[in-house]
Task: inverse folding
């Protein structure tokens, strides 16, 4: 069974940057992928998604202009580049294989990585 692993989270000051990675051991990630986050006390929300071949991508309005989703050259990794981070970006970030591009129907979840934006 495909297992997703996120990495790259951590503590960063407001205005800083982080790059999250999503990988699947032994598999290429030529599936539609979504990045979701769950802030403390809030529901999980989708913030970005990319198509299986990487030709199409979307970011939510709340992160537009600051976050970018992309695929690695070998299609084994999907990245979420996060710039100009704000305290409200704090949360657990999950990547997921979705049933279609930008679908909220998830086939596989990663375990999540914590992002904390604080001075």
Result:
């Amino acid at each position: 069974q495909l297992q997703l692993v996120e990495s790259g989270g951590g503590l960063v000051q407001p205005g800083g940057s982080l790059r999250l990675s999503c990988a699947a051991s032994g598999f290429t990630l030529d599936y539609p992928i979504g990045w979701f986050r769950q802030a403390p006390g809030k529901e999980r929300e989708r913030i970005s998604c990319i198509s299986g071949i990487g030709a199409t991508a979307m970011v939510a309005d709340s992160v537009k202009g600051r976050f970018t989703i992309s695929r690695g050259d070998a299609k084994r990794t999907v990245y979420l580049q996060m710039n100009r981070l704000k305290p409200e970006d704090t949360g657990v970030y999950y990547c997921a294989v979705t049933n279609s591009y930008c679908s909220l129907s998830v086939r596989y979840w990663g375990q999540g990585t914590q992002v904390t934006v604080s001075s």
